[in-house]
Please model this.
Amino acid sequence: MHYRSWSLAGTLAFAAFFSSGCAGPRAALSTEAAGDPKLVIVTFDGVRWQEIFRGADQKLAHDPRFVGEEWFEDWVDKPYLRPADRPAALTPFLHQVVAADGVLIGNRDAGECARVTNDMWFSYPGYNELLTGRPDPSIVENDDKSNANVSFLEHLNQMPAFAGRVQMLGTWSLFPKIVNSDRSGIPVNAGFGDRGPTDAMTWRFGRQLLLKDKPRVLYLAFGDTDEYAHGGDYMNYLAAIERGDDVLRQIWEILQADPYYRDQTTLFVTTDHGRGNDPVEAWQDHSAVRYHKLNPDYQPQYNETGVKGSGDVWFAAIGPAVRRDGATTQATGLCAETRQVAASGLSVLYEDWHRFDPEAGAPFPFIRTGDRP
Model:
C-alpha cells in the first residue's frame, strides 16, 4: 500500500515534451515584470523530524537489521555519528544556511509542533493536503487515480501571469495523477524515458529546468528516502537525506547566481509525512489509525495506535518572503500544518489565497502576506 512503484505509461510523452524545449516557454520571460516573485518548493518523501533536528539515530545506526556491520564504521559512524553536531553533519545546508537566514520548524525537542492534518499519514493524502490546502478524507490509498481536487499549482497555471510557467518533476509515478496533469495542464513526469524515476534523474532534469527554462514556479519532489526507509536500509536513507541537502545547496546557489531568480525567489522545503518512532523498527512505516481501521489485516500491530509519530513533519523556508520573526510565533505553541503550504505559496507570489480556496489552511506566520509593495 505505501510502497511506491513506477510505470512506463506517460514517460515517453514527458521525455518528448522535455526535449522539445516547450517546458516553460522562454518567450514568457520577456513579458514578466522585473522583480516578479518566484517560488521553488522541494519535498523529501517520508523524512523524519528526528534526523533533521537530531541527526543520525544512534539506536537505528547500531541495529544490524538496518545497518550492516561491515558498513557501519566508514559509512555511518564516521560521517554521521562521530561529529559533535550530528544534525549539521547530516544536513549542513538546512542548519548552517536556512536555519540561520530563514526558518527551520518542527523540532519537538525544542517544543515546536509540525504535522499533517489528514488522517492517513502516507503519500497521496499528504501531497494532496500540501498542494490543495486541505485534507481529503476520501483519499484512503495510494491509488493510481486522478485527483479530483484542484492544487494551487493548477490555480496558478490558469492565470495569465503564470500560464506555462509552472513546472513539476518528481520521483514517483503517481505525481501526474496527484497534480492531475491532464486537467491542470502541468506536465509531470511518471518516469524518465524507459526507466523509473530516481532522485538523481529528478535533479538532473530539475537543474536543466532552472538553468534553461526558468519556470516562475517549480516543484521538485524527491522520493529515494522513503524507498530506503521502507526497505529498512538506514545507511542509504541517511545518505539520501545528505544528498538531498546538497541538492538544496545547489538549488540555492543557482537561484542566487541568476539575475532572474536572485533576491526574488523563496525556497520552501518539507515532507509529505513522518515515520514511526516506537517501537524502534516502526521507523520503516507510516500510517494512521483510520487507515488500520479500514484495513485491519495490514500490519495489525498498529491497529489501535497507528504508526506513532508518522503524522509529524517539518518545514524550512528561506528567501525574500520569509519573516524570521514569524518563526517565534510558530515556536510558542502554534502548530505548523501541511495544509498551510498552498496558501503560503500563493502569498509568496502576492496572490490572494482566498481566491483559491477560503477554506484552505492560512499562510504560515513566517511568510509575509499582503499586497505587492
